[in-house]
Write a structure and sequence with these properties.
There is one protein chain. By secondary structure, this protein is mainly α. 49% of the residues lie in helices and 0% in strands. The chain contains six helices and no strands. Helix 1 packs across helix 3.
Amino acid sequence: MAALYAGWGFSEPFYREEVFRAFGARDVPEFIDFFWDTFFLKCDANDLLAQMWTWWHNDLGDHPRFGGDFDAALASIRARTITSCRPRRTPTSRPSTRSTRQAGSRTPSAG
């Protein structure tokens, strides 16, 4: 669980720019052991299982109202959305098109 979450818990630049060294780790595997394993060992195992079940089975469109239509489910959300992509100086730099698409499919909330 810790190794999986390590990729989600911090950004790509966190690892690429080796910010993990500020935590006293020499490399990424040591950081996972030092930080993420320690974090997850404190968690209740049943809570972690429930969280994993939610990740594996989460399908926003899997609801009678949307009949499996993910885009319709996204469009039904009424929330303000900010999509931010900071400029990067790497060959892999590009805007987060998935986030932008998902944010664009939402109807702005009133107020």
